[in-house]
Amino acid sequence: MNPELKAEFDKLIQGNDVVLFMKGNADFPMCGFSARVAQILNHMGTKYVDINVLENDAIREGIKEYSNWPTIPQLYVKGEFIGGCDIISEMFEAGELQEMLEGSSAA
């Protein structure tokens, strides 16, 4: 992986409590999976940084390599990769996502 891009990801993910790499943005998701995760976060009132991977191929491909996860969206909470749409949906339905976000500046 490009060291500059890795450093950029590190800074972004470590510097923000909640980061969502998605297709589109929170106001205008460009795929159903990204829309679902954004909808969950918005429903919970979570403050998060949304990164539109469609604006930059290096970011779109780089984040997959960074996380070793093949799909978008990707959610990071407190510096930790949490997962994609299915995992986030399951965690939300089980109440686990709410617990994870409690006490962060995102809640």
Largest sheet data: 4 strands, mixed
Q: Low-confidence stretches at least 5 residues in length (pLDDT < 50)?
A: none
Count of all domains: 1
Tell me the strand order in the biggest sheet.
2-1-3-4
CATH C-level class: Alpha Beta
Return Rg in Å: 13 Å
CATH topology: Glutaredoxin
Let me know the number of strands.
4
SSE-based structural type:
alpha+beta
Order of helices and strands: HEHEHEEHH
Strand content: 15-25%
Label the CATH architecture.
Answer: 3-Layer(aba) Sandwich
Tell me about this structure.
With 107 residues, the chain is α+β, with helices and mostly antiparallel strands. It contains five helices and four strands. A hairpin with a 2-residue loop joins β3 (74-77) and β4.
Structure characteristics:
16% strand; Glutaredoxin; globular; 4 strands; 107 residues; single chain; alpha+beta
Question: Which SSEs are present, and which pair or pack?
Answer:
Layout: H1 3-15, E1 18-22, H2 32-43, E2 49-52, H3 57-67, E3 74-77, E4 80-83, H4 85-94, H5 96-101
Parallel strand pairs: 1-2
Antiparallel strand pairs: 1-3, 3-4
Helix pairs in contact: 2-4
Short description:
The chain is 49% helix and 16% strand. A hairpin with a 2-residue loop joins strand 3 and strand 4.
